Amino acid sequence: MLDSPPKAAKSRPKRKGRQVAALPFRHALGGGLEVLIMTSRSTGRVVIPKGWPMKKLHDAKAAAREAYEEAGIVGKVRRKAIGSYPYWKRLIDSFQYVKVDVFPLEVEGQLEDWPEKGDRRLVWIKPEDAALLLDEPALADLVRRFASKKKPKRRSKEMAA
Q1: pTM of the full predicted structure?
Q2: Cα separations (Å) of 15 from 51, 52, 95, 144?
Q3: 133 burial class (0-12, 13-18, 19+ CB within 10 angstroms)?
Q4: How many Å apart are CA 50 and CA 64, to the nearest integer?
Q5: Residue 10: what pLDDT?
Q6: Which of 5, 32, 102, 115 has an alpha carbon 20 to 30 Å from 70's alpha carbon atom?
Q7: Does residue 53 lie within any of the structural domains?
Q8: For residue 3, is it within any domain?
Q9: Tally of structural domains, the chain
Q10: 80 is in which domain, residue-wise?
């Protein structure tokens, strides 16, 4: 009797090639806009919070959930995406081409604790500086376009904490 072939190492099944992301933003104390960027857990690349769509959650809410899990951010997410960008997702044994829909998230605060706290470095930065650090050129363009359309407001000192 022949032995059956060895089973392949288990890897996460490929999902459809679409993710959702939040673009967390706030109004700086001196006026102008700031966006939150962070490092990815696995490679240390500069990214924004993103992940796979979630069953029973609108894509905008799923993006807000990712911002909470990855950066402890809470706020008001817009239901309409400001655009999308493509990138190659690194999987265990391959790469997958993924399109990411980006939803603006006006930040109201950051929690003391969150699921991935300590796994990433987070920084609030001017959008034009964030665009220089982001790895995906189409995401950098989205950030620039978003910032150019936002009307400047001043953040109150209470919101600065």
Answers
A1: 0.83
A2: 11, 8, 12, 29
A3: middle
A4: 9
A5: 39
A6: 32
A7: yes
A8: no
A9: 1
A10: 18-151
CATH number of the structural domain spanning residue 83 = 3.90.79.10
Determine phi and psi for 70, rounding to 5 degrees.
-90, -25
Q: Is the pLDDT reported for residue 105 higher than 90?
A: yes
In a domain, residue 4? The reply is no
How is residue 151 written in tokens? 């009307």
- R_g (Cα) of the chain, nearest Å: 18
| pLDDT of 5 above 80 | no
Model confidence over 143-157: pLDDT tens digits? 999 999 876 565 545
Token pair, residue 127, equals 């959008």
CA-to-CA distance for 32 and 61, rounded, in angstroms? 26
- Predicted confidence at residue 28, as pLDDT, reads 87
In whole angstroms, what is the distance from residue 128 CA to residue 158 CA? 25
Closest to 39 measured CA to CA, from 140, 126, 120, 133: 120
